[in-house]
Specification:
alpha+beta, elongated, 3-stranded antiparallel beta sheet, PH-domain like, about 150 residues, 2 domains
Length: about 150
């Protein structure tokens, strides 16, 4: 396969993905197949799952802020650690704020511990505003911090 042909194929896949005709897993699998063919390595086989990028023992986990903390009585903050990054949701009466952050985009993660609860501050390298989650249980904050460090260290 010529280099120009590979570039054309990758652009075609990107257009299909942007148009919504290819899901994220389909796009990643097709791109990996093209690159494997170009390298002359492993012949194209069945596509790998997107979660294959995560460690084999990685399990998605959702953490909620405590209702005992300020601002979380009715609408608790939610942080989900997934294979592709962190999914944060802050609810309100008529709206919600949701954000997805890839692990490679996390610049710093600060934990401020209290007696029982902790506050988590996530700063990104992408220039967006930091995410502040108040009222996590201290053990959950430590688990989040360890999981992010593990995913960044891969």
């Amino acid at each position: 396969m010529a280099a120009m042909n590979l570039t054309d194929e990758l652009q075609r896949l990107a257009k299909l993905h942007q148009a919504g005709e290819l899901s994220d897993p389909e796009f990643i699998a097709a791109k990996e197949r093209l690159l494997r063919e170009e390298e002359g390595g492993v012949p194209p086989g069945p596509p790998r799952e997107v979660s294959a990028a995560a460690p084999p023992d990685f399990e998605e986990k959702t953490y909620y802020s405590s209702r005992w903390s300020s601002g979380n009585l009715f609408f608790r903050d939610r942080l989900k650690l997934a294979a592709d990054g962190m999914h944060f949701r802050k609810g309100a009466l008529f709206s919600s704020q949701e954000e997805h952050i890839a692990y490679r985009a996390i610049a710093s993660l600060r934990v401020a511990n209290g007696v029982f609860l902790a506050n988590l501050n996530v700063e990104t390298s992408g220039g967006s505003q930091p995410i502040f989650i108040n009222g996590l249980w201290k053990s959950d904050a430590r688990k989040i911090q360890a999981a992010v460090q593990a995913m960044q260290g891969r």
